[in-house]
Amino acid sequence: MRCVKAILAAAMLGASLPVAALPEDSEQPIRIQADTARLDERRNVAVYTGDVIITQGSMRLTGREVTLTTDAEGAVKTVVSKGSPATFVQTPQPGETPVNGRGQTIEYHAADERVVMIDKAHLDQDGNTFQGDYVAYDIARQVVDAGRTGAAQGGSKQRIEMVIQPRRRSEPAANE
Predict the structure, then answer these.
(1) Which of 14, 16, 78, 164 has the largest count of CB atoms under 10 Å?
(2) Closest by Cα among 87, 173, 63, 91 to 135
């Protein structure tokens, strides 16, 4: 019965996870490795536990527990990974350095094509790093938003930290 539920949960994933990565990523099969899987068809929720690894093409998401929520048609709405830390890796475009993210919680919001790392959040690409309580990465636009979570803003003095590598003179700017 557990095997049947795992197969059904994998089928719930729909066509793909993050869309704006390597063009061939969405055409690749989704592979899930976990110790256990539980499917709630009425709520369209699948929960994977125990060193979970989800891969699709260049995308890799890991965590101690991953909860996947789909819409009525089976398309992914959200993926929430919890770990110590949970991790996210994806190659945005051919020839580009992969984006590496980590946090105690990672949320993927399919409709917005956005990955949010929460609590000890860190994002790295090409030596440029962003870290703080909260780091959000817009996959399609390749935009990073870093800050503090609402609870931390009340009294915490923790600040975000960014390291931006200098661009070589021969390299065109991203918007050129």
Answers:
(1) 16
(2) 87
